[in-house]
Specification:
heterodimer; A: mainly beta; five-stranded antiparallel β-sheet; 14 strands; about 50% strand; elongated; B: mainly alpha; two-stranded antiparallel ribbon; 3 strands; RNA_pol_Rpb7-like_N_sf (chain A)
Amino acid sequence: MFYVKTLEHEIELEPIHFGQKLRATIVRLLKEEVEGLALANYGFVVNVIEVPEDQIRGNIIEYDTGNVVFFVKYTALLLRPFVNEVVDATVAQCNELGFFAYVGPLRIFVSKHSMPEDMFNGFDGERDSWVSDDKEVVISSGCGVRLKIKGRTVEQGNITAIGTIKDNYLGLIDDGSGEGEGL
Amino acid sequence: MSSPANGRQRRPIGASLSSAPGTFASSSSAVTVVENAAELSFGAEFDDVQILSNAQVAVILQMSAQNALVRDEELHDVYKKTQRYVERFNTMKNNEKEHQELVDELDNLQGALTTFRKETEDANSEELELHGFEVAALMNLVATDTVVEEAVALIPSLSRFPESAVDEILDLIRSTMIRIVSYGS
């Protein structure tokens, strides 16, 4: 789910940057350092929305290096998976253990144990897709699926999630080409 | 509390990993709230956040992308992936509308949903309102043909509302959706 939150970040600047464009430099550096990052508890930073005028504090000159440390408060647009949240995702690849789907930069894995009974054995190696017993449902790369997030893993700088399509109203939405019907 | 059907399931309690030097990381506390969207329990640090639906994010990212274009800046990978995602799964888009109009419509809908109140029929007679998470989830998942049963299955915390209330809520969203999509500017 996307949300907006105020976060704080430390930027260290060398004296060469001080001058007319100090503020612009700080904002630019902030964006470069923070955008795209995956923060452990807050999720992916998709975009820095705003750095309010009065929110840059920087009074400390490091005597070792002569740099100044700025504490910048900014509002950011974040993306974070919440447990038991239902989201739509795009399928990226299938293998015999399950399939990977993406919500933007967030990767979600749905194992075959989290698929409906009639899809459990439905992995089609040739077409790289998961097919239900009655051949009605084909999940392959590019399809849209509605899944429920069951768990979240945070590793070095990356957040991934585990999902399920076993419950009612979850599963295939469209095949990536046009309109389709949800299960 | 977890379903045995799932294979790997790791839930980090109070994750305290810092992903980069200088990042604002949260520390783990001894007693952590077990996060569960179905019960609307998210942990203290999400109390003051504003949750956005895909549609609103789509508009924000479009406007921001235009700004970046003007300033000749590169859009990073996460940004592009997110934009592609919200563009695809946005049920309330209308390419001919002005951004500001869309923002207003969506904000109106979000406001209407947030201020939606329903009195319970039992002795307590307390007022029920929608949590920010539910509002965003509704705006993301509901289509014009969604029924009450489906909405409650997808967003379990809605079960505290009587059926008629959920129906009203779905109507609100449906009408805004139709208005946005069909009204050409």
